[in-house]
Design the sequence.
């Protein structure tokens, strides 16, 4: 049997739009990995009656409910009290938790002050609840049976919630779920989501043993295959692969920058970057990868024409003749970065990020790339359209990474 899970985020700041509920997505992902698919995520404010109804319906609907928030010491932190009400139980004061809270708050005693009485409330739990220790904050969590459901109450502070999940909740849930979820990701570029969806529609019918989904992010599509049977997941991947052809760029759970980093390191290919409109974002993406220092020789941020000439040796004549956003300049930048750094591979990017600088011939969103590899230079022009500066820069970084990924895949 598959148990269903549900996540409930609690806090006025979340429903007022003051902060964004990131806890739920984090938890949903981990629950899914444990073979406990999440059927609903909800967000509710601190108001007692709304809270009571949200907790009580969640517990009726799902086998496992994870709530975050409302465990603090103040009047508006009502999770303990409301859960006790839903269970029809009184609150019980837990001496051991109170000792833990006092240890965490020892700064008060060190300063010769008494620990606020309100912190004592954090040691109260529904009668039949079991306490979950908080290893990096004052609010302990707990779990308790509510009807046929188990409710886990965790802190709202993300860092404390993560730690409590990893140390105390996940080990419990692992023993409850006898199924393990297997996943396989195929990353695709150059397809429109609807077109890819049509190609894959036979795989996407609800109720099959293997679930196939498509998600789009910054010009890249990810096909995610999920199932409880590793063999079935692998055969679905085998069946889908030929439908993708050269659109398939890589496979796996990891990010595109990580794929590029791993391939560079694996093949020992040294790299340099020459960036204009991306202002170092590509270098930032690559340096996210641990161990990249063995191959990443240099990143040049050459925003002005003078810097392109001075730092990369781009001929002033090319700049005047072709314009700073041109394939010729991109080629010269890539060559220059390789020459100056001694790298075997170099990629460059120069484009019009807007909002100004576009012309009818070269609208905002025109981006040129140059790629130098083992003495050969190739170029590419893309017209992404006026996506806005931020998105355009991100798209440009991804496009560059995709090109690197393809180039590295051809080695050997
Ligand atoms: P605790 O249960 O640890 O006492 P709380 O809900 O009482 O949590 P708050 O003061 O409401 O504590 O929130 C503490 C911090 O945690 C705030 O910065 C808040 O934005 C953040 N936070 C609370 N819930 C979430 C959530 N679901 N996702 C992301 N951040 C959250
Ligand atoms: Mg709160």
Sequence:
């Amino acid at each position: 049997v598959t148990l269903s899970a549900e996540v409930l985020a609690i806090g006025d700041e979340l429903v007022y739009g003051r902060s964004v509920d990131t806890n739920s997505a984090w938890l949903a992902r981990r629950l899914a990995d444990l073979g406990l698919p999440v059927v609903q995520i909800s967000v509710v404010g601190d108001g007692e009656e709304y809270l009571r109804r949200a907790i009580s319906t969640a517990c009726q609907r799902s086998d496992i409910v994870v709530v975050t928030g409302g465990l603090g010491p103040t009047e508006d932190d009502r999770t303990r009290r409301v859960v006790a009400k839903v269970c029809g139980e009184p609150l019980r004061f837990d001496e051991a938790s109170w000792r833990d809270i006092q240890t965490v708050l020892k700064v008060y005693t060190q300063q010769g002050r008494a620990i606020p009485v309100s912190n004592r409330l954090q040691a109260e739990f529904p009668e039949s609840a079991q306490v979950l220790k908080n290893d990096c904050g004052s609010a302990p969590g707990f779990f308790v049976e509510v009807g046929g459901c188990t409710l886990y109450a965790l802190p709202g502070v993300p860092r404390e919630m993560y730690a409590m999940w990893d140390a105390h909740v996940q080990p419990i849930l692992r023993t409850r779920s006898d199924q393990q979820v297997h996943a396989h990701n195929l990353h695709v570029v150059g397809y429109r989501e609807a077109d890819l969806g049509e190609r894959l529609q036979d795989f996407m019918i609800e109720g099959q043993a293997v679930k196939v989904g498509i998600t789009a992010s910054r010009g890249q599509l990810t096909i995610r295959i999920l199932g409880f049977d590793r063999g079935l997941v692998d055969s679905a991947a085998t069946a889908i692969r030929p439908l993708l052809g050269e659109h398939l760029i890589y496979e796996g759970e990891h990010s595109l920058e990580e794929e590029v980093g791993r391939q560079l390191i694996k093949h020992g290919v040294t790299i340099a970057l020459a960036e204009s409109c991306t202002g170092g974002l590509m270098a930032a993406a690559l340096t996210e990868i641990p161990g990249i220092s063995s191959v990443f020789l240099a990143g040049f941020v050459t925003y002005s024409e003078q810097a392109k000439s001075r730092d990369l040796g781009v001929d002033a004549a090319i700049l005047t003749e072709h314009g700073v956003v041109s394939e010729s300049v991109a080629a010269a930048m890539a060559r220059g970065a390789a020459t100056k750094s001694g790298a075997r591979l170099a990629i460059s990017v120069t484009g019009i990020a807007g909002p100004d600088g576009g012309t009818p011939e070269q609208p905002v969103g025109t981006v040129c790339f140059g790629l130098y590899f083992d003495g050969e230079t190739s170029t590419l022009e893309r017209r992404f359209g006026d996506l806005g500066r931020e998105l355009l820069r991100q798209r440009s970084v991804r496009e560059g990474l995709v090109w690197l990924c393809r180039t590295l895949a051809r080695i050997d």
The CA atoms of residues 143 and 152 lie 4 Å apart.
